[in-house]
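Q: Could you fold this chain for me?
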Amino acid sequence: MVSELILKIPAYYKYVKIFKDLIEDILELNGISKDEIYEVKLAIAEAAVNVIKHSYCCECDKEIELTIEINEKSMVFMMRDFGEKVDIREIKSRDLDNFKENGLGVYIIKSVMDSVEYQHMKKGTLLTMSKVMGDGSCGNREQHRD
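A: Sure. Below is the predicted structure, expressed as structure tokens.
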């Protein structure tokens, strides 16, 4: 069984927290470890910030859409923007020996996720990230409540 959730936020940094909180709740409900929750939240936040900064060039009222598919063994996160298309060949991790205060978003996303794919759409870009969770039984774990 595949479950799907879709959330849209305006492209403001303050609303990225909504994505992070939603991800945390969904992953907790599916019995995912705190370490994996932290990593996935970080990757999703970095992706959203990159949309605001690079696709929209600033905060604005345009939308960022996040679709989450929960499969038996993995989760797929699809982040869609409707802004300027970024040259996909230019989206790459930075050399970590050349450290700066920012610019590690793509590196973090690719380090955390099992697969990362960028695709141009008619308008904007779709980033698809997938992650096998824990022992590979995503959504099938027994819930333990205190």
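A (continued): The chain has three helices and five strands.
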